[in-house]
Here is the input.
Amino acid sequence: MSKLRIASFLPSATEMICALGLFNQLIAISHECNYPLEVKQKPVVVKNAINYSSLTPTEIDQIVSQRIAEGQSLYLLDEKKLKSLAPTLIVSQELCKLCAVSGNEISKILKTLSPVPEILWQTPHSLEEVFDDLLILGEKTGTLSHAQTLVHHAQNRIKKIKTAVANKSKVRAFFIEWIDPIYCGGHWIHSLIDWAGGEDALAQPGKDSIRTPFKKVLDYDPDFIIVAPCGYDTYQSLQQAELLKALPEWNTLSAVKKKQVWVTASNAYFARPGLRLITGLEILAHLFHPDVIPWSGPIDAFALVT
Here is the structure.
């Protein structure tokens, strides 16, 4: 492993790399890589092209949509720094243009690197494909046995949840991936909700999340609403959830009446295709069926919208 030098362009890959015991081989990350905390000491070679800090959810959606439509990147790649670090393996993805530099940008930078590093693309659309990506990463880095152990442990956690809620009635839920405009849950969210003992008729299984008119939410009238806007932690999601209260007829929803509107940390447990999605499953199962699924995880993993 001494010759292995890994550059990770996305947070989920960074989490996998560290879970496989390859922290010392990780030589470059993106600005969004923040777990485990130790990775923050690593050189950053990917940054945002846009300063989102002062923008509203609506403005972010408009700017991002416009840049993507125009073929502009959302990220800046520090070619000079990357070249000096001389990675032998780059891990990135093409699943979401909001999550990592694009394939075209990487193809351009490859022409300047010597020796040319191997590229490992991670583009999962389901939790099963997340596991596949972990196993492939393990194979590429000589840590396949460790990867298999991690996948086996994760599968056992899933089985435990599914068994515990098997005899419980399904709860009608709606998962919100963005506030304004509202986006439904995509990719693995539908499966997580199903395994947790719920159902989300508006989610997009194995597909990108899409804009969802609030009228559809009203017609569906879920008993639970999970607010997890991409890019935000629990506290920030709680602030974002306040915007929902201004929607016409928001207070007529069953979830609101039953005080079952929750926020959670999307970046930690739902948006990133890594092993912490299993913790996201456990959060959902606890919220839907607290009588059979206790919670002993981080106290800031979720919060009630009051």
Notes: The chain has two domains: 6-146, 168-304. Confidence is low (pLDDT under 50) at residues 95-99.
